[in-house]
Please model this.
Amino acid sequence: MRRKLTLRHPLILQLISQTLPRLRRRGQRVGCLEWAGYCKPGGYPIVQFALKRYRLPDLVWILRHPDPMPFNHVVSHTCGNRKCIERTHLVLRPAWEVARERMRRRPVGQKGFVGLRGEANRRAVLTNEQVLYMRRRCEEGASIRQMSKELGIAYSHAWYIVKRQHWTCI
Model:
């Protein structure tokens, strides 16, 4: 059974004292109170205490509303700024509604990954020139397996690139 964090939790004062110094004041969006501490890769602020990690917007919501959060509901932002913890910008919404909104924000025709494509993605191993080189060499009759070894990538990834299923942006 999970233990719910409530306003009566003994470590709430410790949390407040931890979070106040980490708020960004200069250069922030108008009306937003941005978190300057640790954030998850998705951009949501995280704070750890009592050997457990919590999303900061959830904790702000709990401090404002002492009753427990309904099942399958999440705290979302009206301002769209994930780092914002201004209590007036936080609303409690069903999880399915938040997921539907994310799908609507996806570019038209895009199915899976939503983010930067090609070289702009910080996790990209190849460059645009290498991808074009692979495709050109394959048309000339070169082996996909040999090219994958040259570039240090998996054979399956090289095959998807040559067949234009990966790196479709170029």
